[in-house]
Amino acid sequence: MTTFGAAELLDCYARGVFPMADARDDDAVFLIDPERRGVIPLAGFHLSRRLARTVRRDPFEVRIDTAFSEVVSACAAARPGRTETWINNPIERLYAELFAIGHAHSVECWAGDEMVGGLYGVSLAGAFFGESMFSTRTDASKVALTHLVARLIAGGFLLLDAQFMTEHLAQFGTEEISRAVYRRRLGKALAVTAEFQRLPAATTGAAALQVISQAS
């Protein structure tokens, strides 16, 4: 039987599909190729004035790639209003493999020694595939997303894939596009070289907002 590992998973992303599971305790993994795709525009990322003020205030210490496995585990954990998750143990293992070879990243928000929010995703050429986010403090995941967008813009990325359009993501200017349009954009993104680590790890909220503003 052919082993499905990091290389095979990257090939799936390059083809426009991504893995999911039915439940946390179900070891089966299947691939999704949705007819409609949610994409967060890097050049048209929308922040409310209130959230921009919050980001500028730096309420959290934002760290990059210092607690990747912990972010994935937090995203997989059951929370009020969300008792089930699509992240099972095989998926956690696959993303740990991607992280080990530099193709997965986390953006984390810390309050002292406590991680209170964050997100993780997969980077491949000029595309970043956002996988999941979590928050235990108000706006923590939104601050993480803002810092992610600034990092992608600075690094020359062309595509931020959000997988599905949701009411939560709509506030950031997320658009829903067809499979065909998505694959054209993905093809363009895969043809460029981008660098996730171009911004300093300790980038302030004000600096992140400036990068986003210059791209709009």
TrEMBL record:
InterPro entries the record matches: Acyl_CoA_acyltransferase (IPR016181), Leu/Phe-tRNA_Trfase (IPR004616), Leu/Phe-tRNA_Trfase_C (IPR042203)
A single MF term (Gene Ontology): leucyl-tRNA--protein transferase activity
Localization of this protein: Cytoplasm
Reactions catalysed according to its record: N-terminal L-arginyl-[protein] + L-leucyl-tRNA(Leu) = N-terminal L-leucyl-L-arginyl-[protein] + tRNA(Leu) + H(+); L-phenylalanyl-tRNA(Phe) + an N-terminal L-alpha-aminoacyl-[protein] = an N-terminal L-phenylalanyl-L-alpha-aminoacyl-[protein] + tRNA(Phe); N-terminal L-lysyl-[protein] + L-leucyl-tRNA(Leu) = N-terminal L-leucyl-L-lysyl-[protein] + tRNA(Leu) + H(+)
Spans through the membrane: none
Keyword Acyltransferase: yes
UniProt similarity note: Belongs to the L/F-transferase family.
Physiological role: Functions in the N-end rule pathway of protein degradation where it conjugates Leu, Phe and, less efficiently, Met from aminoacyl-tRNAs to the N-termini of proteins containing an N-terminal arginine or lysine.
Protein name: Leucyl/phenylalanyl-tRNA--protein transferase
Lineage, highest ranks first: Bacteria, Pseudomonadati, Pseudomonadota, Alphaproteobacteria, Caulobacterales
